[in-house]
Specification:
8-stranded parallel beta barrel; 13 helices; 432 residues; single chain; TIM Barrel; two-stranded antiparallel ribbon
């Protein structure tokens, strides 16, 4: 790498990401019911008020300013705007509007996610994703969100990790609605693709220049046994279907998902592309092995590079970040990194993780990938779904008894990054 290749291009945005329920909590959703039913990994764990971001919004925006962040990803909680079916909370809408205005006033560009896994309590029994009735209800929700942001320069993310939601909610039963039904899963994905198009149209009606996309989880899949043809085939299938099928649908207008014996989805959703950027969430690589018993595969996170697994048990594999970013060139669209981060419970690894992954990002830019932004997951430690309160992804930790925020050792690294717009020196990689 030359000296110049350590410098980020003009206009590149640095920021951080959150999702509403994970940092706000404090309201009934399908996930609150899921927790009450004891379906997390650890009994008795609940989100509760999360880290009280709803009440401490201005304090947390101050942290963003201190970091030098130029963008902040947040989500609008459908359950907050429509807590009961057909009843819209105008006070909540005004509160969201005020938050967006306060971000803009401080020079921070809002990146708004419309769907980040959670739903109002009434959703799955009234208009679940596998039924056509979900689409008009979704459109009403989207139109209210778009209206509350009217006149503001907002980047829109319609869905966060739709394939993760499909696998967890409709195939593996590990998250709401807790189903294991391939037929319903296929219909749900078809409707979510249609829902993205609906949102894209609603947003463009109000602001034709608005940026609209999704946050797609991209994972590197590798054969557990490099020599084994079935392990190789599984890895190719997982890559094409999990990583690319939904993105391809939004680019071509045709959804073609085929996981034999598991789920099929086929729908013509639009004539042409409905993405203005490609949003990427990247964390790790997994190895796949064919087995003779159902579900005929086994996933494993292996410490191949001897960097040490992260505290959640994932491989630390920055080279995969560069690999995934380069593959996005085929869409000929700007790329926004919507999430990237590490579960680091000791505070010793986050700066080095950032450095290695941003080095890969700069190399991808040098190879012609049009990357516009990097949003770190996460601004704050938060409620990590099935894992509860164990993982620590935040640039800022949170004392959950007092809700006091405290800087991790990576904050100094991130500040230097945003101040100089260059990869910081290695002295900042060591924990303080």
């Amino acid at each position: 790498m030359t000296t110049d290749s350590y410098t980020f291009p003009a206009g590149f945005l640095f920021g951080a990401a959150t999702s509403g329920y994970q940092v706000e909590g404090g309201l009934p959703t399908d996930w609150t019911d899921w927790e009450a039913a004891g379906k997390l990994k650890h009994q008795g764990v609940t989100c509760g008020p999360a880290v009280d971001h709803w009440s401490r919004f201005d304090e947390d925006v101050g942290l963003l300013q201190d970091l030098g962040a130029q963008a902040f990803r947040l989500s609008v909680e459908w359950a907050r705007l429509e807590p009961e079916s057909g009843h819209f909370d105008e006070t909540a809408a005004l509160a969201y509007r005020s938050r967006l205005e306060r971000l803009v006033a401080r020079g921070i560009r809002p990146v708004v996610t419309l769907h980040h896994f959670t739903h109002p309590r009434w959703f799955h029994s009234t208009c679940p994703w596998h039924e056509p009735s979900c689409l008009p209800r979704w459109e009403a929700h989207v139109r209210r969100c778009v209206e509350l942001a009217r006149g503001l320069d907002v980047v829109w993310c319609t869905f966060n990790e739709p394939m993760v939601f499909l696998l967890g909610g409709y195939l593996d039963g590990q998250m709401p609605p807790g189903k294991k039904h391939g037929g319903e899963a296929g219909r749900a994905l078809e409707n979510m693709a249609r829902a993205h198009v609906i949102a894209w149209r609603c947003i463009k009606e109000v602001n034709p220049r608005a940026l609209v996309g999704i946050a797609q989880h991209l994972m590197v899949f590798a054969p557990d046994r490099k020599w084994h043809p079935l392990d190789q085939a599984l890895s190719r299938l997982a890559d094409s279907q999990f990583n690319w099928a939904f993105l391809d649908a939004l680019f071509t207008g045709q959804l073609r998902l085929s996981m034999p014996g598991v789920v099929q989805a086929r729908a013509d959703i639009h004539h042409g592309a409905t993405m203005d950027y490609v949003g990427v969430n990247y964390y790790t690589r997994t190895h796949l092995r064919f087995t003779a018993e159902k579900p005929f595969l086994r996933m494993a996170f292996k410490d191949v590079s001897k960097r040490g697994l992260t505290d959640i048990g994932w491989e630390d594999f920055p080279q995969g970040f560069g690999l995934m970013l380069r593959q996005l060139k085929r869409f000929h669209l700007p790329v926004w990194v919507m999430e990237n981060g590490i579960d680091d419970r000791t505070g010793n690894r986050r700066a080095a993780y950032l450095h290695a992954h941003l080095k890969e990002l700069l190399a991808a830019i040098a190879d012609g990938v049009d990357i516009r932004a990097y949003l770190h997951w996460s601004l704050l430690d938060n409620f990590e779904w099935l894992e509860g309160w164990g993982p620590r992804f935040g640039l800022y930790g949170v004392n959950r008894e007092t809700m006091e925020r405290f800087a991790t050792s990576a904050v100094a690294y991130f500040k230097e990054l945003t101040r100089t717009r260059r990869l910081p020196q290695s002295a900042l990689l060591a924990p303080k």
